[in-house]
Amino acid sequence: MIRQRRTRIVATLGPASRGAENVLALARIGVDVFRLNFSHGTHEDHAQALADVRAAEKDLGRPLAALGDLQGPKFRLGAFADGKIAIKPGQRLRLDLDGAPGDRRRVQLPHPEVFKVLKPGALLLLDDGKVRLSIISAGEGFADVEVVAGEMLSNHKGLAVPGVTIPVPALTAKDRIDLEFALRMGIDWIALSFVQHAANMADLRQLVNGRAAILAKIEKPAALRELEAILDVSDGLMVARGDLGVELAPEEVPVAQKTIVRAARRRGAPVIVATQMLESMISSPSPTRAEASDVANGVYEGADALMLSAESAAGAYPREAVAMMDAIIRRVEADPTWPSLMRAEHGDDTDEDVDALIAAATRAAEARSTACLVAYTTTGGTARRLARERPTLPMLAIAPDDAVARRLCLVWGLEPRVAHQPRGIAAMTDEAAHLAADLGLAGPGGRVLIIAGPPMGAPGAANLLRITHAPKARA
């Protein structure tokens, strides 16, 4: 089952999409990577979800990836006696550490580390920015605030302090438990929320110890300032526009998105654009025109993947949302101007030999007789470098095991498959040509360009470019 598009789709599993039948249907429609959100659901829910993904993978005969998204240090209010309170601009309220139910005069904020950084005049944003509170005064374990905007505050709403770095570990106690569980399950990617510094990802890498690929969610302004250092210790990035949009002015978010996508593409690291892509499809069978344009923009930018959140997890139309995203992506990729616009975002080549070889392969691929590119990859590095060049021909990535193939499901344009690493160049050439023909990537006589790094099966830089022709597909 070959995707008729290069940009990949990530979909979040939740109450609206759980179950083997739903997962298989979403995979058939177009999902490449399933996101398990550890902010919600139990370990039993996530274990069953992963089992359903693996079953769908077997049914389809192609790899599918699972991404475990850790909650991170999310700051939330306590609870109100009546569940919520009405508020209005000018109203005053105290935030404190008292666990008693809140009312119109006070409410708990169970995070002493937040009070330590609050200053008079600072702004607090709650409920994704719908409520804004200005700090009047703050001290040890309390803050008196004035409502600037908002009409309602309810239990456990999230809180952000724009422009302030709060001294908390990126991995909470809950995250560490969830991480170990996800790794024991055999998750393919781990995403860390609210990354602020490269050290956060370095800590995660040490804990993961090669058992999964790791991805940094960029949703804090501090992370934007350390983007290159974060990339040094990450396998991929996510443009998490929901929380990023809470702390940045709306006009800054598109610029931040471009910055993050360009940085990842320069490195050949997969990058996901996420949040509110088809938001109206939570309750509507069709998106707004602005949302369709937003999805299209991510494709024109050359992002590796686009992500659905509540649309697929809790919405009324999860299958329609995936089908719509798939349709928009395919339409953009059929636009004759798409390749040039996408390549305008491409970073500078490096001096590494492997990049020179791959650049030569992509130039050779421009010949009309070329049908597809094949990359033999032991760890995924050669395939990712090939995808970095954004060739519009089909790209087959032949990996030695399921773990490598699944991680490559997130990468732009790659069709990962598992096959034994052949002994010798002649066997490699024959296997690549037959597999390309069997998958329908090359018709009889079509030229196949093969990139590999003998000796086969040993990690290292690609050093061989070979040209062959596809035979007839095997029965």
List the helices and strands and how they pair.
Blueprint: E1 8-13, H1 20-29, E2 33-37, H2 43-60, E3 65-69, E4 75-76, E5 84-86, E6 92-96, E7 106-108, H3 112-115, E8 123-126, E9 131-139, E10 142-149, E11 152-154, E12 158-160, H4 173-185, E13 189-192, H5 198-208, E14 213-218, H6 221-225, H7 227-232, E15 236-240, H8 241-247, H9 253-267, E16 271-274, H10 289-301, E17 305-308, H11 310-313, H12 318-333, H13 338-343, H14 353-364, E18 370-376, H15 381-388, E19 395-399, H16 402-407, E20 414-418, H17 425-438, E21 447-452, E22 464-469
Helix pairs in contact: 1-2, 1-12, 2-4, 10-12
Summarize the structure.
By secondary structure, the chain is an alpha/beta fold. The chain is built from 17 helices and 22 strands. The protein is elongated, with a radius of gyration of 24 Å.
